[in-house]
Amino acid sequence: MYLYNLYGLIIMTYQEISHHRLVSQKLYKSTQCSPQEIVRHLGAMQAQDYAMAKWAIGSRCDSSEKTIEEAINSAKIIRTHILRPTWHFVASDDIYWMLDLSAPQVKRFTTSAAKKYGYDDKKLDQANAKIEKLLYGNIHLTRDEIMQELNIKKTSSDDFLSAAIMMNAELDGLVCNGKMKGKQITYALLEERVVKPKTKLTKEEALAKLTKRYFESHGPATLLDFSWWSGFSATSCKLAINAIELQLNSVEIENQKYWFGNNSSTADNFRESVHFLPAFDEILISYKTREASILLEHQSKAFTNNGIFKPIILENGKVIGTWKRTIKKDYTKVETNFFNETESHKKAILFEGIKAFENYLETKIVIE
């Protein structure tokens, strides 16, 4: 249950914030959800590490990696560049309004990168026209195959150009991920994979929708957390929060206001939990500051200043170590690194949390 002070305001500690985030981010698996429902709930899930991003979905539902792969191949889940200049998973229901909202701000990065290689807006439009012809008729091609047709050679410098060209095509709503070709990612025409809606949201409506989605699925979180996650300025985010303020709850800790959904259940009592979460998981990366989930002294062990996030071990909402997996022929090897000295009997309890990953992979896990 929530506690209230004399002024009727909700009182919450950092420990309680980390617990509520487990609930809002669906890590307690209190209800059965499909992979696409998990992605829709979270709005957008960072997905540059494709294998780990699939586990970010799998850790929140009981689906296997194969089932999640099927949802991506069938375009129930789209992998594209959105919100910030990085890969995200987004539900097919959300792809068009979210692109309309965020593409203009992300395109500033892609057009700037393309200009360094002699590609202005006109040349990018010409590339789009050629890509559309190549992929028309439900053709799915890898980036290398597309670049070969565009006569762009595969060199280290041209690789940045090809990335900018394809990202621009994604942001223009032309392409998205196609079906996997073995282990290779392909591109396909977005409108051949997801039917375009007849109506469009205004920018204000879309930003209000994104704001509500974020705080309901990631809250309690701050204005700056939302600004970081969405890529929008703090000023724009503040206006969006003000517009839907009555649809949210808030709590203040050390002069910082945290927002969360009105539909947050007060019946979700604390329970012991261990989660082996992937690199770049939303539980850390979707917040500007992360003191609610990981002690300052341990942060450099879990993520770097240049934005590389490691797979983490979460106990009762707190990061207690990192892990890595190595896929073998008949099993998967998991190695752990706990921040503090951990006794063998405690490790045995913690390792129970890896069973979810074993079920997801549908293969044996060996811990070393």
Describe the structure.
It is a single chain. Strand 7 and strand 8 form a beta hairpin. The chain contains 16 helices and 15 strands. 39% of the residues are buried. Among the domains are: 114 residues, Arc Repressor Mutant, subunit A (Orthogonal Bundle), CATH 1.10.10; 94 residues, no CATH class. A five-stranded mixed β-sheet has the order 11-12-13-14-15, with helices on one face. A three-stranded antiparallel β-sheet has the order 3-5-4.
Task: Explain briefly what this protein structure is.
By secondary structure, the chain is of the alpha+beta class. The protein is built from 16 helices and 15 strands.
List the helices and strands and how they pair.
Elements: E1 3-4, E2 10-11, H1 14-24, H2 35-42, E3 45-46, H3 50-58, H4 65-73, E4 77-81, E5 87-91, H5 95-115, H6 121-135, E6 141-142, H7 143-149, H8 156-171, E7 175-177, E8 186-189, H9 190-193, H10 203-218, H11 223-230, H12 234-243, E9 248-253, E10 256-261, E11 274-277, H13 282-285, H14 299-302, E12 312-315, E13 318-327, E14 331-338, H15 344-350, H16 355-361, E15 364-367
Helix pairs in contact: 5-8, 5-10, 10-12, 11-12
